[in-house]
């Protein structure tokens, strides 16, 4: 919301004053975002502005790029944080002319801007100068129009010719007798691609020299669905479908946190504990599936390891079903709390949870014997899929992918929400930067989640019956103020999951943007795979633990 002539200037913190001094005449206006100071700049100064903020002010994490078309302009917003302190945030707003929506690319400063800006071009229609590869990313190149543009014709028929997926290698490279270069399509329908993912892979002999993930096969424009839904009742069922495998409550929390802060809703302490317990059960279920499928990718062990992992995942799913009534699409959170209290009889539910948590140490010892102690898996994962920490940061990698590269970053601790800051638990990191380290992080995080769940059960057991408030008093219809903007994140099973909302004074958001950790993490695959063999590339992909529903949205 830009300040209009005659309006009072909001109180400026000393840090904001320092940033204004740092950016100087690059700033042409100020915006008023709820969680971050926002600076409006010209579209030809993006790289200089972001470069100063990154190199001189320490904003080394480009978390999200939001794009939107207004009646009189287009706008890109770069949401910046610090890996050392994600509560220290700043937004850079770049308006462009509605007739010529061209802005300078941020890719030379933050490598992760590559895919984020391609998505902004694909769905909204903003073009980015100096972008290394500005083309569609979720829709086919032959698609007509930009689906989130104001004048998009939804009834226009679209044709996608077969040449869309032609071999990109030149004729002479394919035919030359002295060339070992080969193009290989892996997926989109292939068990090793963890969903409908197409890997366009170029080999030199047996080594990968280039791999390009081709995404979008599951794109449903979840953001536009949310923009056509009401805050209070209609949006909440959708987050379950982003990471549809087992992270439903984690996804719901991302929307709940953003909307509750936007509408100034205070969640009761009792409901926060229930949310925290349910979220960690989801994290265990997600990590169990990640461990099982990773072993399946590495050496095809379906009978033992995969089924063992599914066995323990099912135990978590059973508890979540008792709590929410569903096994995958939970729809359990509500703005202001949760939909209902713990199942009765409470003693049986607590006993079931404690039994599950108490069995986990022995189960994890089995996994270490079968997996981390397995010589074949070690040969395939130790020192393969290397992702140095600075490269991971530049791509905006988060979650176990970042922590497997030694980056000590976890939203639950660093930007606390729920009941996490009241509990005793540790952030898990590994310094190996390889496929093996990312596996170890997930297995050790299961132990930390179990500690959190056990403490939540202790608290819930002793909670006075008359103080079991599961929901705040939330108005039936929410209408946040016009042009109120917020960006909030939570620690999902895959990493930093965020939601940006801009209100327009109605009961539906004017802009709803999803920050998918899988989207940013998948960008790192070429960095991890180039120079490796195809089996090592498959291991690297498995170590990312992506879900295409969340990548594509």
Question: How would you sum up this structure, described in words?
Answer:
This protein is an alpha+beta fold and 553 residues long. It has helices spanning 14-23, 46-55, 113-123, 171-175, 222-227, 248-262, 269-299, 302-324, 346-372, 375-381, 389-394, 399-403, 411-414, 435-461, 517-522, 525-529, 534-544, 548-552, and strands at residues 27-32, 37-41, 61-69, 73-81, 90-97, 102-104, 127-129, 181-186, 189-190, 195-196, 198-204, 207-214, 333-334, 337-338, 485-491, 496-502, 511-515. It is globular, with a radius of gyration of 23 Å. The two termini are 27 Å apart. The relative contact order is 0.13. Residues 303-553 form the NADH-quinone oxidoreductase subunit D domain. NDH-1 is composed of 13 different subunits. Subunits NuoB, CD, E, F, and G constitute the peripheral sector of the complex.
List its salient traits:
553 residues; 5-stranded mixed β-sheet; 16% strand; 39% helix; single chain; NiFe-Hase_large; oxidoreductase; NADH dehydrogenase (quinone) (non-electrogenic) activity; 17 strands; EC 1.6.5.9
Radius of gyration: 23 Å
Total count of strands: 17
Structural class: alpha+beta
User: Can you tell me the residue ranges where pLDDT is under 50 for at least 5 consecutive residues?
Assistant: 1-12
* Beta-strand content bin: 15-25%
Helix amount: 25-40%
- Overall body shape: globular
The biggest sheet amounts to: 5 strands, mixed
Q: Helical element count?
A: 18
Distance between the termini: 27 Å
Largest beta sheet: strand ordering: 1-2-5-4-3
Mean pLDDT: 89
Keywords: Cell membrane, Membrane, Multifunctional enzyme, NAD, Oxidoreductase, Transport
Membrane topology: Peripheral membrane protein
Subunit structure: NDH-1 is composed of 13 different subunits. Subunits NuoB, CD, E, F, and G constitute the peripheral sector of the complex.
Subcellular location: Cell membrane
């Amino acid at each position: 919301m830009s300040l209009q002539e005659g309006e009072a200037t909001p109180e400026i913190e000393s840090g904001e004053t320092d940033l204004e001094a740092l950016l100087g005449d690059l700033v042409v206006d100020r915006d008023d975002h709820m969680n971050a100071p926002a600076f409006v700049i010209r579209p030809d100064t993006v790289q200089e502005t972001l470069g100063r903020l990154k190199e001189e002010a320490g904003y080394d994490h480009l978390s999200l790029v939001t794009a939107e078309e207004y009646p009189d302009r287009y706008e890109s917003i770069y949401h910046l944080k610090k890996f050392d302190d994600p509560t220290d945030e700043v937004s850079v707003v770049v308006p462009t002319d509605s007739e010529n929506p061209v802005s300078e690319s941020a890719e030379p400063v933050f490598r992760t801007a590559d895919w984020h800006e391609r998505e902004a071009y694909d769905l909204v229609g903003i073009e980015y100068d100096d972008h290394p590869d500005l083309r569609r990313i979720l829709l086919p190149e032959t698609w007509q129009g930009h689906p989130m543009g104001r004048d998009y014709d939804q009834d226009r028929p679209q044709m996608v010719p077969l040449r869309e997926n032609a071999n990109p290698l030149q004729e002479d490279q394919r035919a030359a007798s002295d060339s070992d270069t080969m193009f290989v399509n892996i997926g989109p329908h292939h068990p090793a691609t963890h969903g409908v993912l197409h890997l366009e892979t170029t080999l030199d002999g047996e080594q990968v020299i280039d791999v390009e993930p081709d995404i979008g096969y599951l794109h449903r424009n979840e953001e536009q669905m949310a923009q056509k839904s009401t805050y209070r009742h209609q949006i909440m069922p959708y987050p379950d479908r982003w990471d549809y495998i087992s992270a439903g409550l984690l996804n719901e929390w991302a929307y709940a946190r953003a909307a509750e802060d936007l509408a100034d809703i205070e969640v009761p302490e009792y409901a926060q504990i229930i949310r925290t317990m349910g979220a960690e059960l989801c994290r265990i279920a997600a990590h169990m599936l990640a461990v099982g499928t990773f072993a399946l990718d590495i050496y095809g062990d379906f009978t033992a390891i995969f089924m063992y992992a599914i066995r323990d995942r099912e135990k978590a799913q059973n508890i979540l079903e008792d709590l929410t009534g569903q096994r995958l699409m939970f729809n359990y959170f509500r703005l202001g709390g949760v939909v209902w209290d713990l199942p009765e009889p409470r003693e049986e539910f607590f006993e079931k949870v404690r039994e599950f948590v108490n069995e986990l140490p022995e189960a994890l010892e089995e996994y270490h014997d079968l997996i981390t102690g397995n010589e074949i898996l070690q040969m395939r994962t130790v020192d393969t899929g290397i992702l140095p920490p600075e490269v991971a940061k530049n791509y905006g990698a988060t979650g176990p992918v970042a922590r497997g590269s030694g980056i000590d970053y976890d939203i639950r601790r660093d930007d606390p929400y729920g009941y996490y800051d009241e509990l005793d638990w540790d952030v898990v990191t590994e310094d190996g930067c390889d496929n093996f380290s990312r596996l170890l992080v997930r297995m050790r995080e299961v132990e930390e989640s179990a500690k959190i769940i056990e403490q939540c059960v202790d608290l819930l057991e002793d909670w006075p019956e008359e103080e079991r408030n599961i929901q705040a008093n939330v108005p039936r219809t929410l209408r946040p103020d016009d042009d109120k903007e917020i960006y909030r994140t939570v620690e999902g099973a895959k990493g930093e999951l965020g939601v940006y909302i801009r209100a327009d004074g109605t009961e539906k958001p004017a802009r709803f943007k999803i920050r998918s950790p899988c989207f940013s993490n998948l960008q790192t695959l070429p960095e991890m795979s180039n120079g490796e063999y195809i089996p090592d590339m498959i291991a690297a992909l498995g170590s990312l633990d992506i879900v295409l529903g969340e990548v594509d949205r």
